[in-house]
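Fold this complex.
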Amino acid sequence: MVSKYSPGAGGASMPIDPSGDGTKALRADARRNRARVLEAARITFAKDGLAVPLDDIARRAGVGAGTVYRHFPTKEALFEAVVIGRFQDLVDEARSLRGAEDPGGAFFGFLSRLVEEGVVKKDLIEALAGAGIDLDLARSQVLRDLREAVAELLGRAQQDGAVREDVGAADVMALMTGASLAIRHHGGDSDATDRMVAIVSDGLRPVR
Amino acid sequence: MVSKYSPGAGGASMPIDPSGDGTKALRADARRNRARVLEAARITFAKDGLAVPLDDIARRAGVGAGTVYRHFPTKEALFEAVVIGRFQDLVDEARSLRGAEDPGGAFFGFLSRLVEEGVVKKDLIEALAGAGIDLDLARSQVLRDLREAVAELLGRAQQDGAVREDVGAADVMALMTGASLAIRHHGGDSDATDRMVAIVSDGLRPVR
DNA sequence: TATTATACGGAACGAACGCCCCGTTTGTCA
DNA sequence: TGACAAACGGGGCGTTCGTTCCGTATAATA
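Structure:
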């Protein structure tokens, strides 16, 4: 989850950067505040989605709005940073299941995780559903990675005869997005969650 | 779909109202404009949901913003009026299927209609998903009617053995909401729609 | 046609919110 | 510890949008 953010605009006499990755070392307080902002954003976006006022995030982080903007050029950039982190976690999880001995179980288990995440993290489903967000996340690498990882799990499950043949990874992700949204509205209790996931999962199994 | 809107605040010397239903007769131009506003709102809310600026609706209706407010006290009231109309249509449709000879077919057919509507009418799914709307629609009669009508179709289908026993009407409506949202994001082509509906429908059938 | 209640339109208002500016504070390094 | 660059914070600006106000236009009625 390394950010591509680079502070400053490249002033005249920039000291050589020690890490060599194009990002200048941040001052101690700046690094601390940046972390606080990210953490606050993670919590706040999860609860209320992109709609939350940026001031709320700043207040929760214990910094001023200006500080948020020094670290992230726009509100959407901050949102992106948070969401990309979430996606990356999912990608890692999906990839760790690639070699599972039970492809069907791995696939359905991952779906369940996906939905659980979506129910708890509003920003995640908003990002997946593209809820009124420009967010060139569509062109982001993590999203491609996620789709690819899902496609791989799906393909293996299909080869194993655990999943019907007429669905693609995009279908699956859309269904999970929809399920998350439905559950979240529904109140989000875990019984309902399980029932919904079971229904969609059953629908994904091969037609008898 | 009779509105409960009543113009004026009941001045001192109000002439006896001819229709006797508590609403005073509107002037011809007022009645015409009201219809125009409703029609414009229907189209505009369907396309863009509640997020659309009210001025856009007024412009499309060919009236000023003030005129919209004379007929509907708030933007949300207008939204409600539109959504209630849509719900009522669905209720009528569901009720007409009560006596169907094939309960399973009737149930699944209605679900398909529900999703189709949701995909095309953004306001409908927003209302069903409660997307950031206070909208005491929750306490509205039509919504109760709809839930009840769905419950009846569902119950018959279950008695007929066409639908698994462990789901309720709320689950079904949530799933359809989710499917609509997923499809709409997905691009909304009718192939995808059919596939999604088929998957969820299959998931709703009795476990083998 | 004269009169009047009713309705109209759109300018104006105010609240919310993203974003920027700039005077002040703080970390860093010699 | 002194000097300076980096970072801070929060007030303020500009925009968007819901809502209201009020001078003007018009349907209804006699």
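Chain A has nine helices and no strands.
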